[in-house]
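User: Please run a holo structure prediction.
Assistant: Happy to. Please share the sequence and the ligand.
User: Here you go; the ligand is adenosine-5'-triphosphate.
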Amino acid sequence: MLTIAISKGRIYDDTVPLLRAAGIEPTLDPDKSRKLILPTQREDVRLLVIRATDVPTYVEYGAADLGIAGKDVLVEYGAEGLYEPLDLGIARCRMMTAARVGYHPQGKRLRVATKYVHTTQRYFAKRGEQVEIIKLYGSMELAPLVGLADLIVDLVDTGNTLKANGLEPRDLIMDISSRLVVNKAAMKTKHRHVRGLVEELTRIVSNQRSVAA
Ligand code: ATP
Ligand code: PRP
């Protein structure tokens, strides 16, 4: 049995066509079912539907053999304990700093609101800037509007969320896309099975890229 951890929403929606091309079709819709383990048409493959931020944990501890997670989540988690063999090229966006339009605070220690506390800490430390980080769990765009923070670190795709809240993107921290991750032990103990799926998905993703090019 191969167990693949995945989050509902945009990653699931973008992954299903890739899995389908590899002959893996879930037999239940996670939006209609309350089940957290989704069987697939292949008896040897099942999906775990979990929170995006929990994917690296399930894979690192071997509760799932493989997982699909955003680079943002992997960097924040510190996924050295996982193999990351494939960039799936889905759920693309950028991790950026942002602030109120035209806002340029000077001579003060900045307050930065984010759910990416470790990544933000490392980013500002590398620049030699001392900042105060405020951990939030969502809706970061609100923080500068109500005086909770000077800056936010969040994901930006179209920029519409920033714009709708009178914010502007400032510095790019990193480009983000979703990655296939693999448990290190499973790569050895289920080598043929895991390797087969990784190679199949690699082929599908690179075919899609050449069609798009
Ligand atoms: P949770 O619901 O568990 O808090 P989440 O809200 O971060 O997690 P999603 O919004 O589905 O879950 O995001 C999952 C992943 O998709 C993120 O980790 C990121 O890699 C990517 N992502 C997030 N926002 C965007 C976006 N606007 N455009 C493209 N990709 C995005
Ligand atoms: C993400 C992210 C931003 C928004 C950026 O939120 O946290 O708020 O997308 O996308 P945009 O630049 O295209 O507007 P999401 O839609 O996932 O909502 P959530 O924070 O509630 O998960």
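The CA atoms of residues 98 and 112 lie 10 Å apart.
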